[in-house]
Request: fold
Amino acid sequence: MLMPRYLRNLIIALVVIGVLYGLDFVFQGRMMNPYFSRILMLSGIAITLAVSLNLINGFTGQFSIGHAGFMAVGAYSSAYFSVSYGASLAETLGGGTLGWAVALGAATLIGAVAAGLAGLVVGVPSLRLKGDYLAIVTLGFGQIIVVFLNNIEAVGGARGYSGIPIVKSFFWIFLIAIVTIVVVYNIVNSAFGRALISIREDELAAEAMGVNTTRYKVMAFVISSAMAGAGGVLLAHFDGYLNPKSFEFIKSFEILIMIILGGLGSIVGSILGAILLTVLPEALRGFAQYRMVIYSLLLIILMITRPQGLLGKTEAFKGWRARRRAKTRTETEEITAEDTRDQESVEKATLGERQSETSLGEEKPR
Amino acid sequence: MLTLENVFVNYGAIEALTGISMHVEQGEVVTLIGANGAGKTTTLRTITGLLEPRQGRIIYEGEDIGGRPTHKLVARGISMSPEGRGVFANLSVRENLQMGAYLIKDRGKVAADMDRAFKMFPRLKERESQKAGTLSGGEQQMLAMGRALMSNPRLLLLDEPSLGLAPLVVHTIFEAIDEIRGKGTTILLVEQNAHAALSHSDRAYVLETGRIVMEGPSKELAADPRIKEAYLGE
Reply:
């Protein structure tokens, strides 16, 4: 508690990386059934996709249904890089684990940047307008990308793109997933995030508060697209094979279902939704030909009984966060306030602050 | 402070405003009254840049602001409490007020302004951590006004603050308007409730089907037989 924030965050990051690295040995090796470890990793990729889509659909309230398109951009651009330059880049760096890690990092960056740029191109014209235009444009974008990929011979066209270096890495997949969660979580709990939520609640009123709504929507959309691209990178290197078919709109809908099922505007909900929708079809394999029927029925029943999603808008860890924030806020308030206001009003303000925050913390458990 | 010169606004082919001229001076409370569809909200939306005038000029503090994006006007000291209140339903009362101070980076100032809003509307203080969507209509209106004041506007635009509220609450809202004026903020008030609007303002404009048909000091208009018949139901 007494150490500076960056130091604490650094330690947390190192611990997370260490734990992931340790788990990597467990899941990578023969200690775990490869089938289970595959589902686990696919869940990790799904988490990245769902949490990133939730930023734009759940928190900003802009309906995007082309997430698979951005995923495809990330997947194909990074795959092209890995096939063409990945091996040589790894060689020049010594060819060991480190060399491949750098090559992989570069591929991830390229995929994310490419998808982010695609997001910018799609977002700027369609997000200037208020309303559901984004849904139509992103739907069209998703289709166009598939058509494009089917016709680009350099990446295999309709036959699919094979020969991508295979990296089934628990470490890498969950590192990206955790980074996505942390980034989205921090955005949502910042002033930027509150502006995004206010756009979702009432766009006109947000504009009247001085929020440049177009710019903020585009920023959220680009970040969301870039993270979808990173998810695509993971997928491209998971099986070493890509096919345009796997990025059709049905994939976008799958991610959409994950976040609606989990609760639009809840990060924990998105994570649950992603895991559930990845595991459920596998768990139902015992039902053979009735599998997809039961799967669909379960989804319908879930949506009827909990239309707001599993978690609604609540976050499982919100109470803890609010309490911590209350503490740091009163501390900084006392310092900054002293020189701007007289002592009496300072005391009043900080007292009010404390009361309000404790009641906020108590309100939480539901 | 604010002058509209012969402003025309269209919704597609439909003319919503046909040559409106009006002015609001520093420290005044000016009201714009008229029936449904007369163009009251359209006028406010044009001033705040949500609609662009087809013709005419909107001059605020000596500068033509016609068609300027809304969010830029907030920094210039214009703030609006929108029609239908527009509170952020899933944010708490406190967070709503913080959003009102979105452009103010000085936290000490925001805290002081929030105290001021709570002093003006003690009900909001009681509901501080409650989600705005769970407030009553009157409380939401108080929140919308308190939020609009958080940006420390020089010109406050109020769109139908009494709409759909119980008479007792309407009274509270208009008392607040008096209080805001007392602190030196200029107010342009759009109202259907002509009686209350005329008794809490300095000057008034009467809008009918996109044009101004009458204007003058509110007291005189309130005594005018035509106004009495058409808007005060006497």
